[in-house]
Amino acid sequence: FQMELKLIFMSTLLAVCCYCDAQSEVNECIVANARHCGECIQAGAKCGWCKDPDFLKQGETVTTRCDELQSLLKRGCDEAMIEDPHGEQVVHRNKTVTNRRKGAEKLNPEDITQIQPQKLSLTLRSGEPQSFDLKFKRAEDYPIDLYYLMDLSYSMKDDLENVKNLGTSLMLEMSKITSDFKIGFGSFVEKTVMPYISTTPAKLLNPCTGDQNCTSPFSYKHVLNLTSDGNQFNTLVGQQHISGNLDSPEGGFDAIMQVAVCGHHIGWRNVTRLLVFSTDAGFHFAGDGKLGGIVLPNDGKCHLENNVYTMSHYYDYPSIAHLVQKLSDNNIQTIFAVTEEFQPVYQELKNLIPKSAVGTLSANSSNVINLIIDAYNSLSSEVILENSKLPEGVTIAYTSRCKNGLVSEGENGRKCSNISIGDEVMFTISVTSKGCPKQVKPETIKIKPLGFTEEVEITLNFICECECHKDGVENSDLCHFGNGTYECGACKCNDGRVGRQCECSSNDVATEDMDRTCRKDNGTDICSNNGDCVCGTCECKKRDNPDERYSGQYCECDNFNCDRSGNKLCGGHGRCECRVCVCDPMWTGSACDCSLDNSTCMASNKQLCNGRGTCDCGVCKCTDPKFQGPTCETCPTCPGVCAQHKDCVQCRAFGTGEKKETCERDCSDFIMIKVKTRDKLPQPNDASYPVMHCKERDANDCWFYYTYAVNNNTEKEVHVVDALDCPAGPDITPIAVGVVAGIVLIGLALLLIWKLLMIIHDRREFAKFEKEKMNAKWDTGENPIYKSAVTTVVNPKYEGK
């Protein structure tokens, strides 16, 4: 059951995918059902309008003038009569990015260029993207403005002492980065209402407890305009005093908003703007003002009087999104210098505020300087592009080409990281419009790198009408006595009028008298059930496939119900007109599937079908049953076929033979099928085509068996037994035993023969000795010098007993 459910689910998913694919292939030009040229070109970038007055066939509606370009050309519309406007782009200001080195001649900030081009205009046609390249290059020795915004609640007392000497030290360190550096200072505490501070008279004078001498609480106070005098910074900051409040979160967002929008008070220049926000606590944001009875949302405007924010009791805290917008609008990059305890909170805030950084604040002035420099290097090493609000229907896409050839698209295409001074990066920006805005007028958008004052200004123009629209004739006589405007080869009917020439009133389009003229041969079907009767004239229905159309006075014709061959309409060699194939030259037959060209029947010997067949519709029909193939040249049963294919079969089946090195190149003209045994090979009586059995021997005296044939599809087919038949080798064991036994027996036989010969020889010698002995005549006399070696002694006592 589970398996059945899986199969049902997979089938449904496959059907949905197929449906989606089919939908994606729908011709948007036809779906638009455009009745005039302007509507057509807004349907898509591929759509064109045929303005040829004689283009439409009988029964076709005016909407069929709108189609894809290739389809219009195929249907007979001359290319010069097709309205197909295209967008364009014009660059108006293209100042080259500044190549400047530190120590060179000082330039005004407005003379330094880091982004190129600066101004251009794009003319957009619906669905057609317009792309341009934007170059960004960080200039060396670029001016910097830094505003130090500090929390002066009581817990920041030690940090205030460190900041009092920050001016000159920071000026010295920043001089290593830029020769044009300015610094300013401001402070904040909290809204001056309950429950954020105590409103008792004594606490308003001195919010601190005990004998601590603190200044009155305030929301935000601007202390020092941006200046290049570090000593002045030290002096004014040294005059500041700690204040206090009741709750832990501070009103820093009020202060950030005023610093962002009060540029004329702060003294911001059109240079790199840094805001250092120093605190040891969290923050209030939009909605928290209700605790103090403040319900009006922050208006995002400057409210400084005598350098003090005066509307903290009137407007709520700004939201994070509001701050992001104002910081971005004023090109301010924020550095949060906070204690380690609140690092996680401000890290999350950093993720919401683009071009911001977080550093750890400690009780050491040199640490603050290092924090600022590190944060600046981090911020300035990344460029992020943002664009202003886009008009309705307009989309924009970014592709970045950063250092080391890194290419990114989508959201990552907006930014490049690890950019050093002097590095150059490129962005490809593509702007696309879908349709036309309700009010057709030029629109302006801007693109800029976050944290930089420079921007690209882009003017967008929209193509909403064709060129031929300008030549339209209102109330033209061609449109039934002036009932429409004749433009682009067709009538654009006035309100209340319909028909190809606007000849009918929309109130009279469906009457019995008009329907009668739409019935063929007084039949019952209106427009052959393939169209609608409008003003007594058939307007044929459209098909989902843009290449398929109904036509004719009664929509009785179509171009897709002709005979097919090879699953192709009219065999792919003709066109279908009113359900009859009109064949191309050199083709004939009801489905245009019979070629009159005999070149495909020409054999290599320049004879038609090798002289062994007839050429019928460009295909040889062999009359000699032995011969096969497209030109009757293949004879699978003729002598020599086996030897001809031996090397190729050997290399493909066994990887051996003379052609094993060139096998893939020389032996790919047949289909090879391996079988296990010889009885699995095709037999002549089993196949419907001749089969040749082959037996060949390789270099190792092994036999291999295969068959060769040309099947009914004229494909060469080889079946081969996948095992070689090699002669059995000798049994080594008996041979070895026999050799050893033979050697032993021969040795024994030789020994026996030698022994026998020795016996015979000895006997002969002994007989010869005996014979000589018998024939010897011995002398019996004694030798006078002979003395016997025996001495006889007689015992006197011996009595012989």
Automatic annotation (TrEMBL):
<keyword id="KW-0597">Phosphoprotein</keyword>
<feature type="domain" description="Integrin beta subunit tail">
    <location>
        <begin position="642"/>
        <end position="731"/>
    </location>
</feature>
<dbReference type="GO" id="GO:0030027">
    <property type="term" value="C:lamellipodium"/>
</dbReference>
<keyword id="KW-0965">Cell junction</keyword>
<keyword id="KW-0130">Cell adhesion</keyword>
<feature type="disulfide bond">
    <location>
        <begin position="436"/>
        <end position="694"/>
    </location>
</feature>
<dbReference type="GO" id="GO:0009986">
    <property type="term" value="C:cell surface"/>
</dbReference>
<dbReference type="Pfam" id="PF07965">
    <property type="entry name" value="Integrin_B_tail"/>
</dbReference>
<keyword id="KW-0479">Metal-binding</keyword>
<feature type="domain" description="Integrin beta subunit cytoplasmic">
    <location>
        <begin position="755"/>
        <end position="801"/>
    </location>
</feature>
<feature type="disulfide bond">
    <location>
        <begin position="262"/>
        <end position="302"/>
    </location>
</feature>
<dbReference type="Pfam" id="PF00362">
    <property type="entry name" value="Integrin_beta"/>
</dbReference>
<feature type="disulfide bond">
    <location>
        <begin position="29"/>
        <end position="466"/>
    </location>
</feature>
<dbReference type="InterPro" id="IPR014836">
    <property type="entry name" value="Integrin_bsu_cyt_dom"/>
</dbReference>
<keyword id="KW-0460">Magnesium</keyword>
<dbReference type="GO" id="GO:0042470">
    <property type="term" value="C:melanosome"/>
</dbReference>
<feature type="domain" description="Integrin beta subunit VWA">
    <location>
        <begin position="36"/>
        <end position="466"/>
    </location>
</feature>
<dbReference type="GO" id="GO:0008305">
    <property type="term" value="C:integrin complex"/>
</dbReference>
<dbReference type="Pfam" id="PF08725">
    <property type="entry name" value="Integrin_b_cyt"/>
</dbReference>
<feature type="domain" description="PSI">
    <location>
        <begin position="28"/>
        <end position="78"/>
    </location>
</feature>
<dbReference type="InterPro" id="IPR013111">
    <property type="entry name" value="EGF_extracell"/>
</dbReference>
<dbReference type="GO" id="GO:0016477">
    <property type="term" value="P:cell migration"/>
</dbReference>
<feature type="disulfide bond">
    <location>
        <begin position="40"/>
        <end position="77"/>
    </location>
</feature>
<feature type="disulfide bond">
    <location>
        <begin position="479"/>
        <end position="491"/>
    </location>
</feature>
<dbReference type="GO" id="GO:0007517">
    <property type="term" value="P:muscle organ development"/>
</dbReference>
<dbReference type="Pfam" id="PF07974">
    <property type="entry name" value="EGF_2"/>
</dbReference>
<keyword id="KW-0472">Membrane</keyword>
<keyword id="KW-1015">Disulfide bond</keyword>
<feature type="transmembrane region" description="Helical">
    <location>
        <begin position="735"/>
        <end position="754"/>
    </location>
</feature>
<dbReference type="InterPro" id="IPR002369">
    <property type="entry name" value="Integrin_bsu_VWA"/>
</dbReference>
<dbReference type="InterPro" id="IPR016201">
    <property type="entry name" value="PSI"/>
</dbReference>
<dbReference type="GO" id="GO:0043236">
    <property type="term" value="F:laminin binding"/>
</dbReference>
<dbReference type="GO" id="GO:0001968">
    <property type="term" value="F:fibronectin binding"/>
</dbReference>
<dbReference type="GO" id="GO:0032587">
    <property type="term" value="C:ruffle membrane"/>
</dbReference>
<feature type="disulfide bond">
    <location>
        <begin position="667"/>
        <end position="702"/>
    </location>
</feature>
<feature type="disulfide bond">
    <location>
        <begin position="533"/>
        <end position="538"/>
    </location>
</feature>
<feature type="disulfide bond">
    <location>
        <begin position="488"/>
        <end position="527"/>
    </location>
</feature>
<dbReference type="InterPro" id="IPR032695">
    <property type="entry name" value="Integrin_dom_sf"/>
</dbReference>
<feature type="disulfide bond">
    <location>
        <begin position="37"/>
        <end position="47"/>
    </location>
</feature>
<keyword id="KW-1003">Cell membrane</keyword>
<protein>
    <recommendedName>
        <fullName>Integrin beta</fullName>
    </recommendedName>
</protein>
<feature type="disulfide bond">
    <location>
        <begin position="615"/>
        <end position="620"/>
    </location>
</feature>
